[in-house]
From TrEMBL:
PROSITE patterns: VOC
Residue ranges of every copy of the VOC domain listed in the record: 7-132, 153-271
Protein name: VOC family protein
InterPro entries: Extradiol_RC_dioxygenase (IPR052537), Glyas_Bleomycin-R_OHBP_Dase (IPR029068), Glyas_Fos-R_dOase_dom (IPR004360), VOC_core (IPR037523)
PANTHER family named in the record: RING-CLEAVING DIOXYGENASE MHQE-RELATED
Amino acid sequence: MLNQIEGLHHVTSMAKDARLNNAFFTSRLGLRRVKKTVNFDAPDVYHLYYADEVGTPGSVMTYFPFPNIGKGRPGVGEVGTTVFSVPEGSLGYWKERFEKDGVAGVTAETLFGENRLNFDGPDGDSFALVEAKGDHRAPWAKGSVPADQAIRGFHSASLRLRDAGATEELLKFMGYENVDQAGNVKRLAIANGNGADIIDIETLPGAAMADLGAGSVHHIAFAVENRQKQLEVRKALLDTGYHVTPVIDRDYFWAIYFRTPGGVLFEVATNEPGFDRDEDTAHLGEALKLPAQHAHLRAYLEQHLQPLGD
């Protein structure tokens, strides 16, 4: 069993409209945009990062907004719901806020003994807030949500699978342990993690496969401290028979990727070097930052990319 994984690092999803996406995560959810850059493989498309004040691993929601993308179709073989942690007693504030702002899909429930508020993102993305006990992570205190109600980071993410078996075994190999079950949902958690410690597996044997599009999660990333620990994880996965990419420099972290038995794309990302490597912390996410190989496109991209309205 691996001991290098610290919990979630980030979740990356697809969107259609960059401006609406930016407004939802900064104005509606009160997160900080910590980076405005572009997709490495499609530089005419933004890569937007939203998080706490500094982009702490375990708090980072990222998006590729493709203007011409079709809507995703939910199903199995994908991340289902991305869940954020909020302080105990804050869901009343959030319910009122969402209703005032016209956020869709708002429903309250209790799952695994935790109060939970489900809601949809602008593209039908599946999200929830959970009142998490003892989450002492600091929120982005200068955003649109008061600090005593604000999002602390990720609480968990769910995987929707036809058969949980092989993916459950993979997660256990990665250091997760079974901690609870409710109906067709198994909860696994990593001990002494970074706060974003939980993965829920929802088993749906008869469901259709998901179709990637706007509102879909592209991949889910797990955090390791540094490149050495990432290499240890990569070797262990290769030795176990997984097809793992070489290490890829993503400017703000190094990444490796592999496809899980249930079809979900996993990434293992380093905590280093962080989002302040090319911007002062006070000004994160303000300027358009380009990967070195796309720097020559700046004039074109600054004219072509949709203004975010901030």
